[in-house]
Specification:
By secondary structure, this protein is an alpha/beta fold. Helices cover 34% and strands 22% of the residues. Helix 2 packs antiparallel against helix 4, helix 15 runs antiparallel to helix 17 and helix 17 packs across helix 19. The protein starts with 17 loop residues before the first strand and ends with a helix.
Length: 529
């Protein structure tokens, strides 16, 4: 296997070369094969819950009933999905033509490899499936991986922040304060609550480097961009910080290993995949990275006046800056494409699954009905604002709960004149509009406080809900800018879909409403904290 960062890129690729990309998200593993002209040759996916039901996941994860907030996924499931997906592609695609493989993965999840797992990866038998071999070899010190949805590490977060001189100093050094999903606090909790598991761990991978490790037949490095979500890497030098490592857990540096640039070569594809699926032995594996940084790269987002909003299992807002300012709300990561700039990201746990929950409760489990109800209600929803947290929220950090408010004097022109009172429930059309407007207003307020451009010059929308034109129309109105998306494929040119109707940035009653939503969110947070 070639070492991470080895120069395998000086290649003259034949015109018939193909390129294989994966996306290991929370709920599924997807694959797309492209030709040299970026045309899609084949695509397929494996849905974890329905196609691998023996792992017992719901929404791609398991919720531990014995430990509040602990949310995990089995790494064997991801390995089995890889085998299954490549088996589906092999009859449809000549995998010998694939010149390079890479992928994206859900961020922050941590995989704890057992001692000897590296040797087991290098000795896989191509006649046997991947997951049973890893299981038989005892490849995992922990059979379950904490994922980005986990909220069980609040105590560890506060301990790390205190050791590093406070939350804001930690954010200035590593790119973000200690969030419960971050790998550092997760590793600290593993050390404190499962010391035998931590002691038996040979290597800690992120989900992205775990998937790359399977493909190269050995431990792939964590890339610098995804690694910025660990609370362990210096955001400026892009090296692990000794003080952060010492504040987190013993022997952590040797368990994580060295980092690599997001564009580096992880190695040649392992013999297992050459013999089992007929890849060429010359096929290279490029470092995998996190799904959000790879979205920034795939969207070619480079203008500091642009924003991208990804509407998926989690919702994220991100943009590019060359002058990162640490905050307690956002994340700063190295730009995976331009090493001179940075990515600023806001992450919300309550995304598509929470929208689907409201759809199921109030819109007959139908997106068509959901959209019709959206169109029946007026902007600002007659003063009805809602905050819906089906999961423990990241931004703002709030517990599970639905909070509905009716605002009197919403259009009165004065924030002081607005009076809110909490109500039990809205009518169905108002519930539907409240969740969409509330989510976008929260995004706008937090983006402005983190120094992202508001209103932006444009928004590029991606993720599953970006195919919903009614939702995008509301996005354009609340952010006060045009929204671009692609109706069919991320590989097609971006299409300008919606221009916010007021012209220019939002003013008057809409701006007052945005300010009031942020005030309410802070008030709820202080009340419920």
């Amino acid at each position: 296997m070639a070492g991470a960062g080895d120069d395998c890129c000086s290649l003259c690729l034949p015109d018939e070369s193909l390129f294989l990309g994966f996306d290991c998200s929370t709920q599924s593993l997807k694959a797309t094969v492209l030709d040299a002209g970026l045309a899609v040759v084949a695509a397929d996916s494996v849905h974890f819950d329905s196609e691998l039901p023996h792992y017992g996941t719901s929404g791609g994860v398991r919720r531990d009933p014995a430990e509040r907030g602990r949310i995990v996924a089995p790494p064997l499931m991801w390995a089995e999905a890889l085998d299954l997906l490549l088996g589906r592609l092999r009859p449809r695609v000549d995998l010998r033509r694939v010149a390079a493989v890479s992928g994206s993965a859900q961020q922050h999840g941590s995989v704890y490899w057992a001692r000897g797992a590296g040797a087991a990866l290098a000795a896989l038998d191509p006649a046997e499936a991947l997951a049973p071999q890893l299981a038989a070899a005892g490849a995992f010190a922990a059979p379950e991986s904490p994922v980005w949805m986990d909220s069980s590490t609040a105590a560890q977060c506060r301990e790390v922040e205190a050791a590093m001189g406070g939350a804001l100093r930690l954010a200035a050094l590593t790119g973000c304060r200690a969030h419960e999903r971050c790998t550092g606090p997760q590793a600290r909790r593993m050390h404190q609550t499962r010391p035998r598991v931590y002691g038996a761990t040979e290597r800690v991978s992120l989900v992205s480097s775990f998937m790359a490790s399977l493909l190269v037949g050995g431990y792939a490095r964590v890339d610098e961009t995804d690694g910025a979500g660990m609370n362990l890497m210096d955001i400026h030098t892009r090296q692990l910080r000794q003080d952060a490592l010492e504040a987190t857990a013993p022997n952590l540096e040797e368990k994580i290993g060295k980092l690599a640039p997001a564009h580096a070569v992880a190695g040649k594809i392992a013999p297992y995949f050459v013999q089992r699926f007929q890849f060429a032995s010359s096929c290279i594996v490029i470092q995998w990275s996190g799904d959000n940084p790879n979205s920034l790269a795939g969207l070619t987002l480079s203008n500091p006046g642009d924003l991208a909003i990804s509407l998926g299992t989690s919702d994220t807002v991100f943009g590019v800056t060359d002058t990162p300012e640490p905050t307690l709300e956002g994340n700063i990561l190295p730009n995976p494409v331009d090493p001179k700039t940075y990515m600023v990201m806001l992450c919300y746990k309550n995304g598509s699954l929470t929208r689907e929950d409201i759809r199921n409760r109030y819109a007959e489990k139908s997106w068509d009905v959901f959209n019709r109800l959206l169109e029946e209600t007026a902007p600002l929803n007659g003063g009805k604002l809602g905050f819906y947290y089906k999961e423990h929220e990241i931004l703002p950090p709030l517990p599970v709960g639905f909070h509905r408010y009716f605002i009197k004097n919403l259009t009165g022109g004065s924030l002081d004149a607005m009076v809110e009172h909490e109500v039990e429930e809205f009518d169905p059309p108002s519930e539907v509009r409240a969740i969409i407007e509330g989510q976008f207003m929260s995004m706008r307020g937090h983006a402005e406080r983190c120094g992202l451009p508001v209103p932006p010059k444009r928004i590029i929308a991606t993720g599953g809900a970006s195919s919903n034109p009614i939702i995008l129309k509301i996005m354009a109105s609340i952010f006060g800018c045009p929204v671009y998306s692609s109706p069919r494929s991320i590989l097609r040119p971006w299409v300008r879909l919606y221009e916010q109707p007021m012209g220019g940035s939002a003013t008057g009653k809409e701006s007052l409403c945005h300010s009031h939503v942020c005030t309410l969110a802070d008030r709820i947070q202080n009340h419920l904290a």
